[in-house]
Amino acid sequence: MRSDLSAANLFLLRHKYDTQLVFHMEHLIRFYPNKGRLNGYTFPVGGRAEDIPQCLDAIKKDALTRDVNLQFCLLTETEAEYIKDYFGKSASVFCDAGDADYLYKRTELATLAGTKFHKKRNRLAAFKRNYTGHKFAPLTNENKHFALQIAEQWCCTQVPCPALVHELQAIKQALFHFDALQLQGGLVYVNDKPVGMCITSLINEYVADVHYEKCLPDFRDAYVYINNELAQHLKTDLINREEDLNIPGLRTAKLAYNPSIILKKFSATIC
Fold this sequence. Notes:
three-stranded antiparallel sheet; alpha+beta; single chain; 13 strands
């Protein structure tokens, strides 16, 4: 259910983090060479549990060869406990709140039922009332150029920074490789004008991952509308809306949708 292991994210974020991948004893191991937020190795995944110690020894040797500190990132709580047990007192583990995945029950986002979604229902009703020509349509090869158009227009409203450049480039890559990455998503129109977009994929049959979601700022509450419509069109049990990157406003927005699971991520330094 974790977003950092989705095939789409491994591909789309490879340039942002200069991600290096290797399969060792049938385990996938990633290395992030301290470009951006992430730094160090990830826990070996995908192979036999009994081979993990040998994989960790190989990681330790690789760190020595690279002459870098032995560090781990994007660890789940279970993986973090394993690292503490394996490396003992030399392991210093801490929680990275900004890397936690926010997962929601799809049916809750689709219905917005109950008192905990009262404010969201009001905002959804306001959007529909203010923009009577609203429409949601699934993202396809035929209309995906509108998604790029929206993303570019949205970027023009933001303060320029390297992260923004990486994000727009990743969106372009997602749309170019739309079929190969098995992506899905949707568009929001108001009076036939495209004003919002989202790009998603399936982590597995139970969990959908929302990679990118952009709405033009002139259309108030468009994010509430696209969130609700997307949840109605998806068929999974859960929707992973990824991390908040320690951005206060983004964290507030994600918490406001009452996540069912906050999947914590940890980092570790081995002295």
